[in-house]
Amino acid sequence: MPQRIYNFSAGPAVLPVEVLEEAREALLSLGDTGIGVLEHSHRGKAFVAVYEETEALCRELGGIPANYKVLFLQGGASSQFFMIPMNLLTPETTADYLVTGAWSQLAVKEAQKFGKVNIACTSEDKNFSYIPEQATFTPGAAYAHFTSNNTIFGTQFSGPPDYSGDCLIVDASSDIYSRPIDVAKYGMIYAGAQKNLGPAGVTLVIVRDDIVERGPATLPTMLQYRTHAKNQSMYNTPPTFGIYLMGLVFKWIKKQGGLAAMETINQDKALKLYRYLDGSRVFKATAANDSRSMMNVTFITGKPELDEKFIKVSQKAGLDGLKGHRSVGGMRASIYNAFPSDGVDALIEVMRAFELGLTD
Ligand SMILES: Cc1ncc(COP(=O)(O)O)c(C=O)c1O
Fold first, then answer.
1. Are 250 and 262 within one domain?
2. What gap in Å lies between CA 311 and CA 317, rounded to an integer?
3. Other CB atoms within 10 A of residue 103 CB
């Protein structure tokens, strides 16, 4: 088998090797069942045990209160962009959106199809390179929505915005379970799994019971949260492999020491990279200092042709996925939970050598 290389992809992204090794065994036989994990009925005893363990670990790690449901849905985080307003917004009501990047903009676009949207704040004036300090919320709004980590622009909220309404919703796709989260502050937390939690194809939704019940019963059945809540995400065939793998990742996070330990590990990785960038004469971090993401470190040289050259050099050195998102260019190092610290050291070494080559 070829050697594994450092994968800085923004998602789907690197997974812990021990998780992949266990999954490899389970492809042929889940435990001693003689049936592979992909082949088990979702209603059979073996898979139901997997499901229950994944949910229990998710609850334990996140400290999820009993009045919240944990759902494993399909359609990606992007389907939540419309499912949320379909369930919670009407033409007469308003939802507040904090717009800090391309994903928030897409969420707004969907919400506008169902009701009024108030842009509570935006950082578009500076190409989404910072997190606004303040937001203006609408009294009596149906909910407020924000994106905790902006995967494309490399910015991250340090915590939830100061919100006094009853339903704060977060798209946590690119920083879910990378640090502790106070679930009780939210009406809903959602995330596509493919960055911090597992493979593409499963979306984690943590939602408070009263919000589950708010959606009109006239919506298509699959688009009502209550359908999935009532049926333990098994109204139809759930994404079984994704749920299984997410369970393995949760076990791995627990072994690292849980979310607080994960946060320390993630900060160590990101801060050494930012430290290097701050001292560099060639590379420069693009996000404002107080808004820097611990998950996606975006940086540039200032010259697109030099960026391109660096990306080629990095690929030759076995570092993959450093090209910035097509809408912003430059470089992006995605260093989610499972990204190893020595991969960050390797990137710094390659940058240092590149810099020396230019300035010698
Ligand atoms: C913050 C954020 N939200 C939403 C999405 C869209 O997720 P999906 O591809 O699962 O629909 C992404 C994907 O990268 C993301 O980074």
1. no
2. 10
3. 21
Q: What is the pTM of this model?
A: 0.98
Is 195 among the catalytic positions? yes
- Do 270 and 251 lie in one domain? The reply is no
Query: How many domains does the chain contain in total?
Result: 2
DSSP state for residue 287 in the 8-state scheme = S
Do 94 and 243 lie in one domain? The reply is: yes
Determine which one of 195, 252, 269, 307 is catalytic: 195
Shared domain for 242 and 333, answered yes or no, is no
CA 173 to centroid of ligand 1, rounded, Å: 6
* From 69, 96, 103, 269, active-site residue: 103
Active site annotation includes 252: no
Task: Tell me, in angstroms, the distance from the centre of ligand 1 to residue 334's CA.
Answer: 14
334 ligand 1 Cβ < 6 A:
no
Q: Which of these three, 223, 255, 287, is where a domain ends? A: 255
Per-residue pLDDT of the chain (360 residues; tens, 9 = 90+): 789 999 999 999 999 999 999 999 999 999 999 999 999 999 999 999 999 999 999 999 999 999 999 999 999 999 999 999 999 999 999 999 999 999 999 999 999 999 999 999 999 999 999 999 999 999 999 999 999 999 999 999 999 999 999 999 999 999 999 999 999 999 999 999 999 999 999 999 999 999 999 999 999 999 999 999 999 999 999 999 999 999 999 999 999 999 999 999 999 999 999 999 999 999 999 999 999 999 999 999 999 999 999 999 999 999 999 999 988 899 999 999 999 999 999 999 999 999 999 866
Collapse the DSSP code of 191 into the 3-class scheme (helix H, G, I; strand E, B; otherwise coil) and give the result: strand
CA-to-CA distance for 76 and 81, rounded, in angstroms?
Answer: 9
CB of 190 closer than 8 Å to CB of 165: no
Q: Is residue 172 part of a domain?
A: yes
Residue 146 pairs in a beta bridge with 170
Residues 279 and 200 in one domain: no
| 230: annotated active-site residue | no
The CATH number given to whatever domain includes residue 212 is: 3.40.640.10
